[in-house]
Amino acid sequence: MSTIRLENLVKKFGDFTALKTMDLEIADGEFMALLGPSGCGKSTTMNMIAGMEEPTSGRILFGDRNMSGVPMGRRGVGFVFQNYAIFTHMTVRQNLSYGPRMHGMPKAEIDRRVGGIAELLQLTGLLDRRADRLSVNILQRVAIGRSAIMEPVIFLLDEPLSNVDAAFRAVMRTELKHLQRQFRQTMVYVTHDQLEAMTMADRIAVMDHGVLQQVGTPIDVYNNPANVFVARFIGAPGMNLLPGRPAESDRGLVIDLGPLGATAPLPERLANALRSHSGEILFGFRPEQATLAGEGRGIAAPVTAVERIGARTIVHLGEGASAIKVVLDNDQPAVFGASAIVTPNMDAVRIFDRATGQAIGGSGNG
Ligand SMILES: Nc1ncnc2c1ncn2[C@@H]1O[C@H](COP(=O)(O)OP(=O)(O)OP(=O)(O)O)[C@@H](O)[C@H]1O
Fold this sequence. Notes:
about 35% strand; ATP binding; 6-stranded mixed β-sheet
């Protein structure tokens, strides 16, 4: 069984706590991304799973085997780092076949595996090229192939695409997903790039400051962020979060956003949760889940900038704590006057406690 279970995992470096009590279960064959900003503890977590670092406390289990004290080489994991580790004086074929040769695999099996992995990673035509003549992109592909060829049941990748160029990264995202589907490995993938996590992972563990913030499917962390950190970190741009206070109106409970005006009535589920909540709140909505109009009723804010990015336009409105971004498809009629009315899709809005940052009203789509 190649499930991975982290139980009360803690890592301290001297007085500094890099990881605070992490509990996480990764299913057999699952692609789990560890996502978060630099320094949040992703690599530290990964290094403990790999056996490169010992936890300060807590346990790591593969299936029901406790990994405490089991050295890296005996854990049966494949590991690919940001900086590719390959032998530059060898050919691609020699690099790929290195692990199988060291394990004394029969030649026919080595040839079969080299052929298969080379095809999967589009290295077939390069097998007899020396590694020192290849680009960084190709070298990272070889490094992934070198690990994958051992067909580890647990495959750990720490920012494997951060040194390759953007176009190649897009290709590799698809290839890595194919690779994982083919071998059905349990894959743990460290990244600070939400696009990588969102496009490849079955589930994402979002981390910040050594604390696991939320675990969920990509669509779940996008739609139902557990807190303000996840709401801002996931999405490009992140969720709009506007300070406000609940107010009863003749149409139901709305959020009074001060100088920006008031929202439309909240869906019943959120309204009920808010009626039993005290304290200040943040009103959240995704930039993609709102429309703009030149006039009407709703949230009114001055347009401060318009950014055209390919097929989309990001309209910036207001400033400071009341800054709003709205993403429009370029074929949507956009009103870029001195001010505009923002109408969020009220079925998709979220409310957070301003003091704790936690979502109010739980998850759900309405
Ligand atoms: N060996 C170490 N000694 C002291 N502090 C460390 C050590 N390794 C990591 N840290 C600290 O622990 C924190 C978490 O580091 P970690 O490398 O896990 O973060 P990360 O999320 O992977 O970020 P990055 O993408 O920048 O590597 C950082 O503040 C880092 O400086």
